[in-house]
User: Fold this.
Amino acid sequence: MSAHADESSPEMSRRKFVACFAAGGLSVSAITGFAWADDASGPVDCGPPPKAKPHSRTGGESFPPLPLPAPPLRRTEKKRPPAPPALVGKMALGPIKYVVRQGKRVQYRDWMTDPADMKSLLLWTNNKLGIQYRSVESDFTHFSYDPRELPALLFSGHSHFVLTDQARAKLARYVLDGGTIIGDACCGWKDFNESFRHEMELIFPDRPLHTLLPDDPIFSTYYKLGDFEYQKDDGSRYRAEPCLEGIEVGCRLGVIYSPTDLTCGWDGHDHPRGLRVTIGQARQIGANYITYLLGNYQLGRFLSSTKIYYEATAPSRDDFVMAQLIHEGDWDPDPSAVHNLLRFARDNSTLQVKFKRVNVRPQDPRIANYPLLYMTGHYEFVWNDEQTRRLRKYLQAGGMMLVDACCGRMAFDQAFRHAIAKVFPDRELETLPADHPLYQVLYEVGKVHYTDRTTEDFGELSAPTLEGISLDGRLAVVYSRFDLGNGWEHFPHPYSYGYGSEDAMKLGTNVLVYAVTH
Assistant:
């Protein structure tokens, strides 16, 4: 199993969660003591009870009915300004219970423990970022599960909770359609942590929660974050690595989860219970959340549509067919990329392109039928001995590989360099010179444009930086440290280290032509 497979597994995520406590001097037995049973003396309460609201529809409860005729305003009345758009809906969780406050018996549900968490965060970020968004309260009965209505949902609390199969199916569709689920274990509570992990496993059985790596955009969208500052129940503080976890859908996070409390920080609470991120740090993380949601909202909607390879079942004959390598990581983060590249190559070259993509594993004997194998991803992967041997044989027999670090992620970059060194231990990836035939086989590619994020962090690059391995004078492996596939999708990926769309298309088409003619 790969190093990243260990890091990204649910078990490793649980270990990371325990490690956060251990780093602060808390034992595992202390963690298990955080559980609150239904028969305990009372519910956990992190803040004042929410104020009663009139019974009316909110932006998170479904699309509003048609407006009724309104009486004219008196001249002395001022028209109320329209409410800002709703960005996050806080979901009602937990059974209804009753507690006594100030001698009165009041209704209580677990999600009410931080009644103003998201509202407080948005007030703070609206001021910091110069934006205007609001949060709303929502529930599983009235919510439309349409990301256009609410781009994100917040799940927070202390207690165990269980969703219905119907709600799980709708939440899965909501995320695939571009929505985002934000999870937060209030006070770092064990019961909520267990329930949230279990529900995500049921909703996304093929997409496990995994620890987010330092180069994930969530850590740099507004604030550049390193280690987090945590606070224990005795008030002492320490710094340790982030405990954020996530589930990807394409090139964006569809689920963002913190098993250590952030919501108390958003609400400005500082009390001696559980494990939390300090208030100032929590708000910085929250600002990154909000920036990330806004930056990726349109991308999420774009990724929800699927390109159809309408010639997928047609015989190939002598036409060019793209083959994409499957690996144990997120091997297909840009589902529209290859489709768009094939269309561009068909329209701008003499290649006889078949609108067909075949997905193969390295050990699949069918790889010998395809002149080019394409591979991409964000995270680490490992080729076993058989896969390494099959790929070496394929490349030595005249095949070619195009490999692309999706979004320019370092984990994939390091994994590929390690893997290709096992395929050809006596050869190294070398930067292709400016006069290499690959840059001239169809398009003259001398100067290129990179994404804004690339120039911000890597400086003013102007030349392509492809690397390769040649066998007997023929380029057998082409590797791009900066993303090509995002550019092929012809849709903005705001947090990608990569090439601009036009230059990504030209470079990709040159690789296709080179593979066929060499």
Remarks:
- The first strand starts at residue 86 and ends at 91.
- Residues 320-517 form a domain with the Rossmann fold fold (CATH 3.40.50.12140).
